[in-house]
Amino acid sequence: MMNMEEIMQDANLDADTINQVINNFQKAGQKYNGIQCAVALTLLLRILVKNKKQQQMIDAIVDSYDVDFSDKGEE
Questions:
Q1: What is this structure's pTM?
Q2: Is-contact 9 17, C-beta < 8 A?
């Protein structure tokens, strides 16, 4: 069984790759509003990852990233 670090490496989940993916999603945010993007991403995640154990693993990986949740953009 692989540990979390091995899973992240195997899935190419390094910070640079994740930042590239995020930047591409932000480009979509220029065309669509934040709520539209958030709903689409949530639906996509539900389609891609249906297994509860995998969802928990993804939550753990996401929680390991240092993300600034400042109030920028809040109304």
A1: 0.51
A2: no
* 67 band by pLDDT with thresholds 50, 70 and 90: low
Instruction: Write out the DSSP string of the chain.
Output: ---HHHHHHHTT--HHHHHHHHHHHHHHHHHS-HHHHHHHHHHHHHHH---HHHHHHHHHHHHHS-----STT--
Type of residue at 62: V
CA 75/CA 60 separation, integer angstroms? 29
Q: Which of 59-68's residues contact partners 24+ apart within 8 Å by CB, and which partners?
A: 60/4, 61/4, 61/7, 61/8, 61/13, 64/4, 65/15, 65/18
